[in-house]
Amino acid sequence: MAITSIKNLKEFSTNNDRFEGAHLLCPGCAHSMIVRELMNCTDDNLVISSNTGCLEVSTAVYPYTSWDTSWIHIGFENAATAVTGAEAMYKARKRKGTLKDPDAPVKFVAFGGDGSTYDIGFQWLSGAMERGHDFTYICLDNENYANTGGQRSSATPIGATTSTAQAGTHSYGKKEKKKDIVSIMAAHGSPYVAQLAPNKWKSMAKGFQKALETEGPCFINTVSACTTEWKFDPKDTIHITDLATDSLMFPIYEIIDGHELNILYRPKNIIKVEDYLGAQGRYKHLFKPENKHVIEQIQSDIDKKWDMLQRREEARI
Amino acid sequence: MAKEFDLNEVEVWDGNYAASQALRQAQIDVVAAYPITPSTPIVEGYGAYVANGYVDGEFVMVESEHAAMSGCVGAAAAGGRVATATSSQGFALMAEVLYQASGMRLPIVLTVVNRALASPLNVRGDHSDMYLGRDSGWIQLDAFNAQEAYDLPLCAFKIGENLDVRLPVMVHQDGFTTSHKAQNVYPLKDETAYNFVGDYVPVDEMLDFTRPVTHGAQTEEDWHYEHKAKQHKALMDSRPVIDEVFAQFKELTGREYKRVETYMMEDAEVALILLGSSVESAVLAAKQLREEEGIKAGIIAPRCFRPFPYDLVRDALDVPTLKAVSCMDKSAPGGAMGALFNEVSAAAYTTSSRPLISNYIYGLGGRDFAIDEAKRIMKEQKAHADAGHITTNIQQFSGLRGPKLGFYETRRS
User: Fold this and answer.
1) Cβ within 8 Å, pair B64-A92
2) Chain A residue closest to B104 (CA)?
3) Minimal C-alpha gap between A57 and chain B (Å)
4) Which of B100, B206, B227 is most worth mutating to test chain A (most A CB atoms within 10 A of its CB)?
5) Are B241 and B287 found together in one domain?
6) What is the per-residue pLDDT across B80-108, written as a single tens digit (0 to 9) for each?
7) What are the phi and psi torsion angles at B33 (to 5°)?
8) d(Cα A253, Cα B156) in Å, to the nearest integer?
9) pLDDT band at residue A3 under the 50/70/90 scheme
10) Subunit contact B67:A81, Cβ cutoff 8 A
């Protein structure tokens, strides 16, 4: 595999750019940063699939396309199956000698939002992981159904307000905790699973490269800050993501072969989660006196998770 | 290279095994499938070929029928031959992706073993799943017996992959009555069958990296309408290609298929119009009626359900002697006249003779449809013909226990 240099951000960001700048994503959306980083970290040919969602509706509106590579979208739930169908076709045609360029290196990648990954496409993802196809699934996790106006998903954290789990006089927003998709995917026996963030672009690029290099089904959950539904200024996307990783709301780590856990980023100064929550409109109501207990709950959950991750890393399990 | 399968000149195969042999001979690149009664043996048969070296493509057993068709779409977009099989609930679960496959113009072949749709749960054959697919943008061919369940998939690849067509094709056969009934089948040699189907020609394939392609784009009110109109035109324009492929198949095998099959219609006074395995029973019944009672009975059977052969059905009905016809629908009509009745009636309206047309619902959930019942219905048509109008309700139920069920009366006298 042709790994590209990741020494210099400016150089890296313009390398082999196969995701065109003309698209309809919101200004400040982290999706395009993550997608470009994936596409720039390899020189191999790419076959990419996308579930229905913000990325898909913003990049392939006929007669235009932002994808200067092979790309397919079928439905909301089946990007994992679409790209693994293509991967099966690649194997068959390679064996039969019907490929135009049988020696061209190729990687298969599926993108899904959290709605299509944690919820509606969960079964399709699980099936593709179990079948052991050689592909990488990347979840662009913005913690809500942003494409349809910000409804709750099972990736929405407790306490966030969404249009279908609203904060109000009788509610502090979503009541349920976020699904732990990384553990679930690691439990599939995947050879490489990680949670990465675009503010830590070097570790993200390395993680992507590791997933692409690893034979078998790999899964990466990426934090994709959503200016529209998280409600922050579009210029603050990376700042908000810094708060997410420094508060350990989104710890950055990888799990190799389901058991070797490595923490990829340790904040020098771990900040309180209220600094992260307070920077976004979706958590504003939590700062009312009657909702303070939710912030305490979130902080307590973060502390326990961080403790668990460190213990696992130390114990190599 | 896949091993050659040693075949006799005549084999005793059921419809499922016949279909699986046709899929094997087409040397499919990817089969993505999920088992369901009664089409499971197609997938199992194919699995046995894979396990024993008769197939060198990929066989991907997925976790649902929705994923089966999704995998087929991804594989087909990557530029190779693709097929799968399903029935009933599996067909319903795949319905979303059926529309996507046809909208993306991918020539996938789906062998459908027709079965009732729940609820109540029922594994037996009727045409509910076939009818569910009728607006999905697929070509739908209908096999009436095991030989046709073998022949038609071979034709289906050649039709769907034709560069002027590029549409997915379903080949239907009836659950159990065809799929599980062993009959004499005359197969082609592997090489002959493959040469008939031909090599797959990739179009806009995702594995040609010199020419990146975007599959499955979004269109709103500015372009969606034009895409759907073009898709409809492609379906309508597939008619001469289907005829041509059937003609080539006849040249190769001597077996003749037409988009509308007619039996004894030249001088028919009454007729039944129906689909699937019931056609052969109805033909026997018509022959017996002619011999025993002198009733000039005939049978019309659309072989091609989509694109609906409006013109050929009209031609079949435009017989000067024809007075009364019953249109037989093997699918619960859900608050309407049967779908076949509606389409046939529309075609009949433009004939010069305008025969009387009534509607029978029959055979739901595998309820037997026997020769005696076919004869009774044709005799009833004779009574309509003699009276000059429909003497019963226009819609009736055949073989139903309990009180007689019927709806609507004619205003013709």
Assistant:
1) no
2) A74
3) 7
4) B206
5) no
6) 999 999 999 999 999 999 999 999 999 99
7) -150, 165
8) 50
9) low
10) yes
Any long-range contacts for A156-159 (C-beta under 8 Å, 24+ apart)? A157/A249, A157/A298, A158/A294, A158/A297, A158/A298, A159/A277, A159/A283, A159/A286, A159/A291, A159/A294, A159/A295, A159/A297, A159/A298
pTM for the structure as a whole: 0.97
**Contact status, residue B33 vs residue B70, Cβ threshold 8 Å:** no
Query: Are residues B40 and B150 located together in one domain of the fold?
Result: yes
Residue B204 lies in a domain: no
The CATH superfamily holding the domain A9-315 is Thiamin diphosphate (ThDP)-binding fold, Pyr/PP domains (3.40.50.970)
Task: State the count of interchain CB pairs (< 8 A) between A and B.
Answer: 164
Name the nearest CA neighbour of B355 among B392, B312, B391, B388. Answer: B388
Q: Is B399 on the interface with A (CB under 8 A)?
A: no
What's the token pair of residue B148? Answer: 């046709």
- CB–CB of A86 and B58 under 8 A? no
Q: What is the pLDDT of residues B261-315, one digit of tens each?
A: 999 999 999 999 999 999 999 999 999 999 999 999 999 999 999 999 999 999 9
Instruction: Inform me whether the pLDDT recorded for A11 exceeds 80.
Output: no
| Chain A: residue whose CA lies nearest to B79 | A89
* Mean pLDDT taken over chain B: 97
B221 touches chain A (CB under 8 A): no
Give the pLDDT confidence score for residue A100 in this predicted structure: 95
What DSSP character marks residue B35? Answer: -
Residues B369-384, mean pLDDT to the nearest whole number: 98
Cβ-Cβ contacts under 8 Å, B168 against chain A: none
State whether A82 and B217 contact (CB < 8 Å). no
> How many helices and strands, by DSSP H and E, does chain B display?
12, 17
C-beta atoms of B213 and A83 within 8 A:
no
pLDDT in tens, B275-290: 999 999 999 999 999 9
At B216-235, the pLDDT tens digits run 999 999 999 999 999 999 99
Best probe of the A interface among B1, B29, B70, by most A CBs < 10 A, is B70
What is the CATH number for B354?
3.40.50.920
